[in-house]
Write a structure and sequence with these properties.
With 327 residues, the chain is an alpha/beta fold. It has two domains: 4-181 and 222-245, NAD(P)-binding Rossmann-like Domain (Rossmann fold), CATH 3.40.50.720; 188-219 and 251-285 and 306-325, UDP-galactose 4-epimerase, domain 1. Helix content is 39%, strand content 15%. The chain binds NADP nicotinamide-adenine-dinucleotide phosphate (NAP) and guanosine-5'-diphosphate (GDP).
Length: 327
């Protein structure tokens, strides 16, 4: 019998990488997607796995759809990756962000408790829950939570609700506190993809300038393809627990810009980059750097792709994607 997994957020960045990983392990993969007139299968297509997914229609804000899906599918593993995942917009759409990222998790946990209580549950938690609790050092599972955005606050609710179902009902629920992870499949709004796309366009003569909100903030950037393995490993343990997943290195946005322009051989990149306050956030998280010792020791997980390899992979993918537009 094939193992079964349900992935929410199947059309996003992490969903396709996780689906590919589980398919290779012989899983039957169900993907929850919202109703669309024209769904965008681009990221699944990129990995060549669209036809291998069993799609189920639902929405994290619609409790009854989750009840029906869990009742019908009864997956052995549920990976909740669906979210309004963009911090930058979470102030403008704070209610929606709360409904999807906080209440959606409660609805899904309730559905599992009622119709498939032995399903193991993974919650996509985030380093954003730490906020500025340590502005120049490492963050781990014991660091204080001080979220700075509606996104981080909603994710903190989901973090505690995931623990609460574990403690109250003995369910197998885990939080993966993942630091930023990127890839050629990353949404274009996020700073890394925005940079690699712009660098490729500038190199190909399709764009003149890149406008950013700041060059100073620091993130612990890893490769999404490495991080989905940690999600899987959490659900294979004897006992449910919460884990930080990070590369351990931190770089500024400036470092990322510099590395990306370096890939295309442009050294005077200051001429192509400008600050636009429109992209500044009402409250900023200045420095994120994770200590993934627990994941390394317990899950035997380690990231493989380095910062430089990640930047190169993303710039090269954008060059390839944009090449056909060059006249
Ligand atoms: P992503 O590319 O933005 O994908 C999020 C997915 O959630 C999208 O497929 C989206 O569907 C889906 N979604 C949004 N609202 C929904 C709703 N109401 N019901 C059902 N699905 C909904 O995000 P990602 O980078 O893959 O991240 C995966 C998860 O990890 C997210 O929960 C994110 O917050 C969390 N996380 C990400 C990072 C990171 O650095 N990437 C770090 C820490 C935590 P559509 O395709 O229909 O829009
Ligand atoms: P986040 O860490 O989940 O918020 O991921 P983002 O990629 O959206 O942002 C990472 C960092 O880059 C944050 O500190 C942003 O404020 C900073 N940043 C600077 N300029 C920009 C920009 O133009 N767009 C985005 N998305 N982030 C920017």
């Amino acid at each position: 019998m094939k193992k079964t997994a349900l992935i929410t957020g199947i059309l996003g960045q992490d969903g396709p990488y996780l689906a590919q990983f589980l398919l290779e392990k012989g899983y039957k993969v169900y993907g929850l997607m919202r109703r669309y007139s024209n769904p965008n299968y681009g990221n699944l297509e990129y990995l060549g796995i669209t036809k291998d997914i069993d799609f189920v229609e639902g929405d994290l804000t619609d409790e009854s759809s989750l009840y029906t899906i869990i009742k019908n599918v009864r997956p052995q593993e549920v990976y909740n990756l669906g979210a309004q995942s963009f911090v930058g917009q979470s102030w403008e759409i704070s209610k929606l962000t709360t409904e999807v990222n906080a209440l959606g998790v409660l609805y899904l946990l309730n559905a599992i408790k009622q119709f498939s209580p032995t399903s193991k549950f993974y919650q996509a938690s985030t380093s954003e829950i730490f906020g500025n609790s340590n502005v120049d050092g490492f963050l781990d599972e014991n660091s204080p939570f001080k979220p700075r955005s509606p996104y981080g606050i909603a994710k903190l609710y989901a973090y505690w609700m995931t623990i609460n179902f574990r403690e109250s009902y003995g369910m197998f629920t885990c939080n993966g506190i993942l630091f930023n992870h990127e890839s050629p499949l990353r949404g274009i709004q996020f700073v890394t993809r925005k940079i690699t796309d712009a660098v490729a366009r500038i190199k190909l003569g399709l764009q003149d300038k890149l406008y950013l909100g700041t060059l100073d903030t620091k993130r612990d950037w890893g490769f999404a393809g490495d991080y989905v393995e940690a999600m899987y490993l959490m659900l294979q343990q004897e006992n449910p627990d919460d884990y930080v997943v990070a590369s351990g290195s931190t770089h500024s946005v400036r470092d990322f810009v510099d590395a990306a322009f370096n890939v295309v051989g442009i050294s005077d990149w200051e001429n192509y980059v400008a600050i636009d306050p429109q992209h500044k956030r009402p409250a900023e998280v200045f420095h994120l750097q994770g200590n993934a010792k627990k994941a390394e020791e317990t899950l035997n997980w380690k990231p493989r792709v380095t910062f430089e390899e990640l930047v190169t992979m993303m710039v090269e993918a954008d060059l390839k994607r944009l090449q056909p537009q060059v006249k």
